[in-house]
Design a protein that fits this description.
With about 250 residues, the protein is of the alpha+beta class. The chain contains 7 helices and 10 strands. The strands form 2 sheets. Strands 5-7-4-8-6-9-10 form a 7-stranded mixed sheet.
Length: about 250
Amino acid sequence: GEPLAITNCLNFGNPYKPEIYLQFSEAVKGMGEACSVFGTPVTGGNVSFYNESPDASVYPTPVIGMVGLIEDLNHITTSYFKQEGDLIMQLGEDLGEVGGSEYLKRVHNTVSGDAPLLDLEKEKRLHQLLLSAIREGIIQSAHDCSDGGVFVTLAESCILNRDNMIGAEVTVPVIGRTDVALFSESQSRIIVSLKPENRQKLETLAVKYGIACTVLGVVGGTKLNINDHEFMLTELEDIYYNTISRIMNG
């Protein structure tokens, strides 16, 4: 869809604390910069302060809701893999950024490091590339890389259609540490699947918009095999859909 406008809900701690006020003001500035690039006015929103306990504040949490326009329902593109034999490609590039990531928090129990860089002009070109590919019927699925990096993106692409889960054989490029390559949360990346005969069309579009385009693997099977680490889809499905209920039930 073409982005039209946003609304927001900005959740922070006590604004009289200098570090909290800085978080809030920088979030507002960043939101304004992004809206200027994408041409999306802010139609409304709200601010929630003092979200904290005696020990700590909530993480700075600006929540953005966006409305967009899809003129042709045939252009609705879901995030899960569609059929065996499709190519899996990454639009955009990884910069090996794990600062503030889910990986550091969940595995190493630390929240530290710089947030990933964001080039708004490149992000806009990525969106234009994706919309062009969708409208030309080139791609079968598209899923953004965000929390958890490319590993989580690939896992979700395998299991989100629970009526027809399909695995994948993938090799993620590694420069340095494998864990960083798998869980880096570098921005402006989208994982797409497409029929092999459409590869050249997508690569041509990627050159036009100045976006890196890399083949990662192929759709198929009942496992996610990523850099020679195998995960059964049934195992991933159970973790994804049942972990919260197990925690809540003690």
